[in-house]
From TrEMBL:
InterPro entries membership: DnaJ-B11-like (IPR051736), DnaJ_C (IPR002939), DnaJ_domain (IPR001623), DnaJ_domain_CS (IPR018253), HSP40/DnaJ_pept-bd (IPR008971), J_dom_sf (IPR036869)
Name this polypeptide is given: DnaJ protein ERDJ3B
UniProt xrefs under PANTHER family: DNAJ HOMOLOG SUBFAMILY B MEMBER 11 (PTHR44298)
Primary location group: endoplasmic reticulum
Length: 348
């Protein structure tokens, strides 16, 4: 009887272990799933996916939302691993356990400056200055003309980028140069301090021009002057880091609407009769929904009417600005004597 009981307890313990492992395996979402990209995603795809998700789950936008804050931390952790070629290779082969062992054995990484530092690389913010200054190439700023429709609804733009790329070249070059200080005795109790530049020899490199296509995500409500950054896609720097590529938003002219901050403005022409007796009229918005601008009263020339909530969406918000419609009244170019008499009779 005791033997049967012991066997039953062991079976239950084994089953519990299996269930625990299964639950853990289900709960442990891969870094690719966290960023919503395929396993073979390019670095460009990973950066674009990170940018979207980080904006969505940023703590400033989800104050008091613990689930969103946890998601934001997961997104940044996944991004940190998948944009580091060494960590990504380890993760692809050995998973998270391999990364932990790599960090424990003195490998690079293990948290760094935190996910706020990663986020600030994309969207601005104070990065603490590193102890060792890293040489960096020039940032490249490109004026990007975005359609009013994309700025209203969100969209993507394909941009061709042509830049310098560092390639191997023949020969050797001075690299990792540093100043070394030593002292030389020049007499009894007298020493001279000497500073000497010491360099290593590295394989030579050269610049070549290469072109490639970039997809730029336009977020709803972005304003003129706002920048979209592509980290380390600027000008390269030999023995340093490449600068950043920044697309600076400019609103393209539109046939119907003019943007005024978070508001939209447009002009509608009506006839003199419509101005006097009212009219039924709609205008098609940027997403093609219809806005009713009808009036039952008198409309004066140059009169401006506000339509609340029909303007531009506010960036990273569910709110919208307003739409202002200016009415132009189309007067007849001439009147017959009979028409003049009738108008006098009506208006007198």
């Amino acid at each position: 009887m005791a033997t049967r009981k012991t066997t039953l307890n062991l079976n239950l313990l084994f089953l519990a272990c299996i269930l625990s492992y299964t639950v853990f395996a289900i709960a442990a979402k891969s870094y690719y799933d966290v960023l919503q990209v395929p396993k073979g995603a390019s670095e460009d795809q990973i950066k674009r996916a990170y940018r979207k998700l980080a904006l969505k789950y940023h703590p400033d936008k989800n104050q008091g939302n613990e689930a969103a804050n946890k998601k934001f931390a997961e997104i940044n952790n996944a991004y940190e691993v998948l944009t580091d070629s060494e960590k990504r290779n380890i993760y692809d082969r050995y998973g998270e356990e391999g990364l932990k062992q790599h960090a424990a054995s003195g490998g690079r990484g293990g948290g760094g400056g935190g996910f706020q530092d990663i986020f600030s690389q994309f969207f601005g913010g104070g990065m603490e200055e590193e102890e060792e200054k890293v040489l960096k190439g020039d940032d490249v700023i490109v004026e990007l003309e975005a359609s009013l429709e994309d700025l209203y609804m969100g969209g993507t733009m394909k941009v061709w980028r042509d830049k310098n790329v560092i390639k191997p070249a023949s020969g050797k070059r001075d690299c990792n140069c540093r100043n070394e200080v030593y002292h030389r005795q020049i007499g009894p109790g007298m020493y001279q301090q000497i500073t000497e530049q010491v360099c290593e020899k590295c394989p030579n490199v050269k610049y070549e021009r290469e072109g490639y296509s970039l997809t730029v995500d336009i977020e709803k409500g972005m304003k003129d002057g706002q920048e979209i950054s592509f980290y380390e896609d600027g000008e390269p720097k030999i023995d340093g880091e490449a600068g950043d590529l920044k697309f600076r938003i400019r609103t393209a002219p539109h046939d119907v609407f003019n943007r005024d901050g978070n508001d939209l403005r447009t002009t509608v022409t009506i006839t003199l009769v419509q101005a006097l007796v009212g009219f039924e009229k709609t205008i098609k918005h940027l997403d093609e929904h219809l806005v009713n601008i009808s009036s039952k009263g008198i409309t004066k020339p140059k009169e401006v009417r506000k339509f609340k909530g029909e303007g531009m969406p506010l960036y990273l918000s569910n709110k919208k600005g307003d739409l202002y419609v200016t009415f132009e009244v189309l007067f007849p170019t001439s009147l017959t004597e009979e028409q003049k008499i009738k108008i006098k009779e009506i208006l007198s």
